[in-house]
Design a protein that fits this description.
Length: 496
Amino acid sequence: MKRLFGFLILAAFSCMLHAQRVLSLDSCRNMAIANNKSLLIAKERMQKAHYDRKAAFTNFLPDFSATGTYMYFSDEISLLNDGQKSALNHIGSSLQQGLTQAATPIIQHIAQTNPQLAASLQQAIQSGKLDGMSTALNQLGNELTDALRTDTRNVWAGAVTLMQPLYMGGKIRAYHRITKFSEALARTQHDAQLQDLILNTDDAYWTVVSLSYKKKMAESFLDLVNRLDGDVEKMIREGVATKADGLTVKVKVNEAEMLLTKVDNGLALSKMVLCQLCGMDLDTKFTLTDEDRTDLQVSETVPDDAVQRAWTYRPELKSLDWANKIYEDKVRVVRSEMLPSLALTGGYLVSNPSLLNGFENKFRGMWNVGIMLSVPVFHWNEGIYKVKAAKSEVNIARLQQTEAQEKIELQVNQSLFKNTEAQKRLALSEKNMEKAEENLRYADKGFKEGVIPVTNVMEAQTAWLSAQSDRIDAQIDLKLAQTYLQKAMGTLGPGL
């Protein structure tokens, strides 16, 4: 039971800590950087560009590949036709028949002059000695037919090949440089998105701070008019105030309640925006460290070399510079298609049936090595047109970079002007605040002495709240102006 009670106390204390979560500007930035989906996508693009560069480097190395195949054919390839096969299979019988037919007229001719010799020849032909020779020749013909049979219905083949580029017109080097520049381009694009995210986070952070101050002032104003309403009711009962004064105060009460409602809604929405940027649930309860400060410390220093810094650090200009280099190497890639290419080749080929020792149903192979040269001759000037098109892309990228420099210089000057305006507004709000405090002090003193009506007190209080709100807004505007100036210079972000 004690353990359960202790666990419940610990859980309640943890919930209280979670409900009272306090966030600073740096913590909001860090959460936004860690949870923003667009920034995570940019990081993955950096990884992709990194691996693309590694893959491009492998084009300098030899390429090994292995292939294998099996094919079944319905018929085999025959080097002899059917007539040739029959002639070889019956070569002995054909020879015997030919000898017999050739010997018959000779024997008949001999019989006219020498019957005894003719009888001997006739006996020798009919004795069967030629049959043995015919059989042996028929067998030899069958063996020759079988030896010339290919048996190519089942064919197995395999090969291991090597390809080492020796010269490809500069294509491999140019492509490798393109992937290096693409990796740097992905990094600068990530930096640009990082600065945009920090700028949006700061904007949402200071919007919440501003509305929190406005809420406190609206609540203070509502408390004031409520007290005045009660005081005026008492004064009406005492006869020292009119009903018109009471109605005036009640109108102010209604206006204060409506103003507080609007500020509450705006503050809730602003906190939701900040939660979304920081990757928190939209209903997360938190307070900001600058909400309770009555005076925000603001630095009014402005760098003298803002434009030069922008040209040095602005990620958009870096991106365009990398893009220029990429397009220049694309020209080299296109030009390489018009140049000869040279490669070293080698490999080992194995097959079954094998042809290295006649037709054998065995796996036999042989190795090979050679040089492969490819020289483009003529293709109706296609390569020249492609090179000119690639050079036009280089010129476009250079013009875009020049235009971007001009726009960035204009943006930096606009940020400098806004920073100057914010400083003047802050100085003016400080003077207005002093004047409003002095008027409020006289109004309170005069109201207590009964020489100043309640409407003047409300006007003085309203002017003081307005001056206080303007002062806080001026401080926040100056902070945001400095943030926008850092963004314009490209120095907004960790380590910058």
